[in-house]
Amino acid sequence: MSTDNKSKRTPVYFLGIGGPNSIGKTDHPSYNRFVEVGREITTIVKPKALVVFSAHWQASADTLQINVADETEIIYDFYGFPPHYYEYKFPYIGSRQVAERVIGKLNEANIHVEKVERGLDHGVWAGFIAAFDPERNPLNVPIVQVSLYSREDPEKHYRIGQALESLRDDGILIMGTGMAVHNTADFQKTMGTGQTMPYASSFDAALKEAVTARPEQRQAQMTALLERSDAWKAHPRLEHLLPIYVVAGAAGSDVGEALWSFPEGSLSWSQYRFGEINDAHQAGDKKQDT
């Protein structure tokens, strides 16, 4: 691939998106980070569509699922919260055409995928409400969500991203959402104490080192993360970590950059971008308009 073409590809992102209780908390450090990265995407990257993988959708061990509906409502996949949490709205559209392109790329890599109709889960829209505020910074392009496997195999998820990498050359942005550290069992213990669990900081630092490694070393270093003594404390289950393996696979030869990290209690928020953003994206848009 030429340097010129590479500079025009969409970057790849990983965003740490919290639970429903984080929605609307404008005083939390994550809020302004969502706003910043959302503005970057709408004003500089300007994708034609967004394909997203969330921690909150796992299909089966060997088959993925993908939303192919053009119109679906967001889903409230959480329970026991006050009524107003179920009144949030996030308007968006899907795209059967984009979904079919994703399916085609996955099938070429012998990855089986099932077509379904399913709305965005809170692992996406809880952060997108801030990043792509419908009034202040609407995304205005189709969003297609793809599941993870239920089998929590990082290598298998890395291959998903590798299969989809070339979509970036056509203006399709690939994003994963989850958390750098996610231990809900310890969450209640740390709430309101100001305490940050040691593994939240140590694993977050190790993840950053692996994700930002040289591209030819990245996959091996990310795989080795699970051999660390703090790994299973940071992630008793892997669903919140797996989306970053997908996007790292889609990054190809692009270097990962840590945009932000914030260990908090038994969690760690983070944002990563793979690939450069520059005037080439805007120049490409102008060329198409002429």
Give the biggest beta sheet. Answer: 7 strands, mixed
Shape: globular
What is the strand content?
A: 15-25%
Helix content: 25-40%
Structural class: alpha/beta
End-to-end distance, in Å? 25 Å
Poorly predicted sequence stretches spanning 5 or more consecutive residues: 283-290
Brief summary of the model shown:
With 290 residues, this protein is of the alpha/beta class.
Outline the structure in words.
The chain is α/β, with parallel strands linked by helices and 290 residues long. Helix content is 38%, strand content 20%. The strands form two sheets. Strands 1, 2, 5, 6, 7, 8 and 9 form a seven-stranded mixed beta sheet that branches. The protein has a two-stranded parallel ribbon with strand order 3-4. Helix 2 (29-45) packs across helix 4 (122-131), helix 5 packs parallel to helix 10 (242-250) and helix 7 (198-211) packs antiparallel against helix 8. The longest helix is centred in the first third of the chain and has 17 residues, at 29-45. The two termini are 25 Å apart. Residues 283-290 have low confidence and may be disordered.
